[in-house]
Amino acid sequence: MTVSDIVKSFGLKIRAGKNRLDQDVRGGYTGDLLSDVLAHSHKGNIWVTIQTHPNIVAVATMKELAGIILTGGREPDSETLRKAEEEGMPILVSSLFAFELTGKLYQMGIPGMG
Amino acid sequence: MSGAENNIHLHEMFHIEGGNFTNAGSISSQVKKILKEAGFSSRVIRRTSIATFEAEMNVICYASQGNLSLFVTPDFLRIVVEDEGIGIPDVDLAMQEGYSTASERIHEMGFGAGMGLSNIKNNTDGMILTSKFGQGTHLEFLISLEGEDKSVPLLNAGE
User: Fold this and answer.
1) CB B83 within 8 A of CB B59
2) SS3 A71
3) Using the beta-carbon criterion (under 8 Å), do B118 and A34 form an inter-chain contact?
4) Residue B5 domain-assigned?
5) Which residues of chain B have pLDDT under 50?
6) Touching check for B26 and chain A: CB below 8 Å?
7) Is residue B120 part of a domain?
8) Which of the four, B49, B65, B109, B110, has the lowest number of CB atoms within 10 Å?
């Protein structure tokens, strides 16, 4: 499953990284504490979060995540978008809240741990 | 054979401004860029980036200012972060996962989870943390370059 497949399934809005949606998604991680994501996420995870500030791009890039989905219709800061484009990190927006979005991603077959 | 000191060189020193969340992450980003351009493996880059990011955020969150120095030797990268500020009254307590002294603002941004120091410990091959309460903190960590390509220019710039 690619980031693009997820975008289509959920009707996500693409805010950055539209040329990097072909990446394979290997698992997912939901969390809003950056050190927690740094400690426990894995390469290729799709990251579900409410954080919109530029440090999410740094974190996602460090862990080589597949992309970031902001929940509840939250929009990324302009600086976040600039950094995301620079790093080629997809930033997507969902109107769903984290619990529901995560549940549906999991049901689609995207695993959690490991 | 010349002394080992000749092979250790300070590559660069960065200044970190405490409380400046606008540029947060910019120092670790610059360090990452240096390592990427030097041609190190993604493993070294990832480990160093994570540790540097956490160290940088600690200065921004808890100190008034600090300096981060990147030293390069043929066998390891050494990063030293020296800051001025309140310091850490109990280092063992600070190292405990989940222990945090972060303000509400810091928590709102998703920092202050109390995992920064353990993330540094888990991504490095040696760590020293000392503090003088009321003055500041000294942190340094090593990242082994075992298995890396030693012919990269960065490792030979000190000669």
Assistant:
1) yes
2) coil
3) no
4) no
5) 1-4, 159
6) no
7) yes
8) B65
Q: Using an 8 Å CB-CB cutoff, list chain A residues near B24.
A: 54-55
Residue A102 to chain B, least CA–CA distance (Å): 19
Q: Are B51 and B30 in contact (CB under 8 A)?
A: no
Please write the tens of the pLDDT for every residue from A61-73: 999 999 999 999 9
Residue B80's domain is classified under what CATH number? 3.30.565.10
What domain range includes position B130?
Answer: 10-156
- Note the ipTM here: 0.88
Residue B68 lies in a domain: yes
Interface size, chain A vs chain B, as Cβ–Cβ contacts under 8 Å: 53
Q: What percent of chain A has pLDDT over 70?
A: 99
Q: Which CATH class is domain A3-107?
A: alpha beta
Q: In total, how many domains does chain B have?
A: 1
pLDDT in the model for residue B150 = 81
Q: Which two tokens stand for residue B144?
A: 């082994």
Is position B2 within any domain?
no
The answer to whether A6 touches A12, Cβ cutoff 8 Å, is: yes
How near does any CA of chain B get to the CA of A34, in Å? 6
Q: For residue A63, which residues of chain B lie inside 8 Å, CB to CB?
A: 46, 50
Return the ∠ at Cα B139 (arms to B131 and B20), rounded to 5°. Answer: 95
For A71-74, the CB contacts below 8 A with 24+ separation are: A71/A96, A71/A97, A71/A98, A71/A101, A72/A96, A72/A97, A72/A98, A74/A50
CB-based contact A34 B42, cutoff 8 Å: no
Report the amino acid identity of residue B107. H
